Each structure stands twice: as structure tokens, then as C-alpha cells.
Amino acid sequence: MIDESPAAPAGLSRRHLLSGTVLAGAVALLPARRASAAGRRVVILGGGMSGLAAAHELIERGFDVTVFERKALGGKARSIPVPGTAAGGRRELPGEHGFRFFPGFYRHVPDTMRRIPVAGNANGVHDNMHDLTATRISRNGGRSDIIVPELTGPGGGVTLDLLRETLTGIAEQAGALPAAELGLFVNRFLVYLTSSDERRLGQWEHLPWWEYVKAEGKSKDYQAIVARFLTRGLVAVKEEIASTKTVGSMGQAFVLSGLGLGSDGGIARMLNAPTNEAWIDPWVAYLRKRGVRFEVGQTVEALETAGGRVTGVRVVDAAGTRRSATADWFISAMPVNRAIGLLSPAVLALDPSLEKMRDLRTEWMNGLQFYLRGNPKGLGEEISFMDSPWQITAVLQSALWDRDFTRDYGDGSVADCLSLDISDWDTPGIVYGKPAKRCTAAEVAGEAWAQMKDHLEDTGRSVLPDSLLHSWFLDPAIAWDPAAKANTNDEPLMVNTVGSWNNRPTTRTRIPNFFMAGDHVRTNMDLATMESANESGRAAVNALLTSANSTAPSVEMFQLYQPPELNALKALDAARFAAGRPNLFDNV
């Protein structure tokens, strides 16, 4: 039975008790407690980024929290140990769904990290991040790479050859784009920077990035760098269908954070260990200590409804045993491809707008790890293979982690790991002539290795000799279907296509005790990332607190930085947009 009585006295809401936003971090100082009052039980469906974030905020505010997760806590951000690879007291080789990358403009995730205690860390898990200091933009076809060299560590060091290649690469890139095209891109960035919110949502949301940057008919370098890499390489969406609002917003955030504006840290940060060791395991341990119950291996099948509300959720375990779990409040924190399975006729009758979620699109962005017998030299920490058909990016773990591979992982013969993200699974490769979706796991590995060598060894030097390769591990979410001769993906990624904002749900649904979280929910971040997932989990908790008339403090929310110096130009643009006129600088 659901208790609908408010937690605060009748007529006195949390908004009357609190003036402004109280820092959520202060709540962590309260003693752990299990709320026993009726109306305080919350079931969270999904234990990924959004589910853990919601559980964190709720348990610190005295709610009774249970999280159901079908696979593994941490979702797409988790580490995936490679089965059967441990020996001699070492841990299994660390695999990943994809390496963890924390842009400086992330604010919600770093705030949560500071509130996850770790022995010896003054700022909790947050101290397990460090600034990315060495990156390489690699081109193929004999073109030199641009390298920001690291000064220490086994990955390299400053050498004359490295400096020579970097200077050559900068000169080549500067001359790669015709002056007119470089001016065009600067203009498009200026137009977006000075566009009002009304234009961004009303015009740029509905225009593909390819059209916005006027890529048709331009040079191959312009198309590769400006159109393709900024979409497929960074957010796994195709440039012909990517929302300009999303791509432009992320581009602006990167540039501003690089200038130290609206940034929590450096322009990009990485973890100092496998994700579970550095972040997820301490997080789960903290939440368990506070009182969160985790039920892993439980697949959510359906929502049960009565009286215009959600009354329970039906779950099934690996053995096929089904049961119902009841609560006062429910938060869906499942990825969109799973969340749409909850949209039964009964649920849609209560909130027909959720039907639009079925029109949201997913793409693939999954990880592949190459385990190496030695440390390749001169790669830096992060490498972007600009011209790879599969839009590969990689990080060299020895340059990032404070771990000794040979001592800590595997059988003692692995010294390093190149961890890859494959962002384009639909373009044919250079070895087998097939897209990754139609390659076996061995072909995916062989193709990815060849595409890296095509970039790193195109000037005649040996960087990744085949003898260096020990083994590889492909994200197990990718599974080969021999009948279809194609892969399936159990964990696709929601991507922002033109007009998709209108199909994305808000945190608050029309069902009074049911809330939505996940990176497909409308957020200020507006991109399927750990940050948007965390933001949505926080927003769901704030909506729940309001509905419960709770006296607990609101969860702190952050906004992407908007330069106040541009407010006048944005106000002018809002007036021009309302009058049907283009942006003041949109004249090319």
C-alpha cells in the first residue's frame, strides 16, 4: 500500500523551508540512517551512472533506497576484468567498455567524486583524476602528427625527432585547410557562440552539423576534421544527422574550458587506475555503508500500475524467477533501449508523451584493449587517429595509471595496454573491407591494429611492431551472430540527432511517483555522457523531493558556462530570431 502523506507538515513545502539551493555536499556530513517514515521508499531501476547518482543523493537525504541492476554496477563506465587472465596472485587484466575521459567542463561528476571517501585522498575519488598532459593527433598518408609531449613516464619524453614531427605536423595542418575554409569554420563557430537559446533550440537543433558547417563540396581535410571527427570521433554520431545544437554546445564548452572558463579542472582529465578501482568500487562501498541495497542480476520487466500511479516493478533473475518490488517512488535510470521496454499500454495511458522515446536513436561506441609486452615510445597519453575509417581514439594506460602492469595484472608478461574507443561501426575498414558491425571479434582487433599502424607508421618508423602485441579484449557487449554474419550490441549509446530534443523525456513524468533519469533525458549537458547521466539522476531526485514535500536540501545543479560578455549579442539574436532574421554574423 502506498502512503501518499507528505513528509513535511501539511501546507509547508520544502520550498518554504529552504531559501535557495543548499550545497548537497553538506548532507554527506549527516549520520547514515535508514528512513522509516512511510512514503520514503524509493526503487531505482538501473545501477549505471544516473542510478548511482540518484541513489547517492537520496540516501544522504534519509530515503530508503533499493537499486535493481541487470548486469553490473557502473553501467557503461565500469571496468570489465578479462576472465581467466590472472596468475601468480595478480588481478585479471583490466578491460573497459571504453576508456574514461573527463572534460574540464564536467561539474556534476567531479562534485559527486569529491563526496566519495577514499583513504589517503583529501578530496575523495576526485583525487584519482589527473590532467591529461600528452596528446597526439595522428594523420595517415605520410603526414606528420601533432604531438604535445609528456615530460616524464615510460610513454616517451622530449626528443629531437618528436619535436621535429610536431613542428612539421603543425605546419602541415595549418596549410591543410584553404584560407577560405578556415575562415568559414571560424565564422560558423562565431555564429553559434552568439546564437540565443531560442535560435539554438528552434533552428540549430533541427539542422545537421554537416549542413551547418557547409561541408558539402569542401576539401577532404575540412570534411575529415571539421565535419567528421567532431561528430563521429567525439560523440559517435554521423555528421549528416547530428544536431548542430549538441555539437556546437560541446565545441563551445571545450573551447571555454580550455580558457579556464566554467571548468572544474584542466581541459581534460583521466583516472589513475581502472575505473572500478579508481571510482566505482569506492562509490558502491560508500553507498552500501550509507544503507543503499543493491540487487544485481535482476532484469526489470515491467512497471505495475493502479490508481494513476506506479505501484510496483516486476523483475526476473537469471534463473527465471519473477517477483514484484513495491515502493513509494520509482526512478527509471535505465538506458533508452531498455527504458522503452517499460512503455506498456498501461504506462502510456498515464503519460502518452513517453511514446516519443521510441523515436530516439542509438549508435555504437565500444572499447577494445590491446595488451602489450612492452611500452611503445612517443605515443603520449591520448591518441586521436584522425583519418581512421572507424574513428579510433586510444589511451596508453602506462602513461596514466599509477599501476605496474607486470606486477599487478595478468600473468606477468603484460607491460602495457592501449585502450581504444571505436566510434564508427558502419564504415568499411582498410583490411577486410567491412564495417566493424560485420567483422568477427578477431577481425575487429586485426582491423583496429592495422588502422593504428596506418597512422603511426606511415612515415617509415616502427611504433607498433606486431611482436609487441600480447593479446586483445573486445567489449563483451559486442556479440557475433553467426547466422546473420553480423554483431549485436547489448549496450548501444543514445545519440543526439536533429530534432531529437523533442523526443527526449523530462525528468518529471505525468505519473506522480515515477521519474526518468539517464543520458537520454533532457539535460543542460545535452549529450549522452557520464555527466548528463549524473545530472539527470540529480534532477530526478530534486523532482522527487518536491513531489514528496521533503524538507531535505535540494541537490546542487550546475550549468554550462555562458560568457556574460556575449549576453547583449545573444539578446539581439533572440530578437532577430523572433523576427525571422538570421544571426548577425551568419553571412557566408
Automatic annotation (TrEMBL):
Top-rank lineage group of the source organism: Bacteria
Pfam families xrefs: Amino_oxidase, NAD_binding_8
InterPro entries: Amino_oxidase, FAD/NAD-bd_sf, TAT_signal, Zeta_carotene_desat/Oxidored
Domain Amine oxidase stretches: 497-545
Protein name: FAD-dependent oxidoreductase
Biological source species: Actinocorallia longicatena
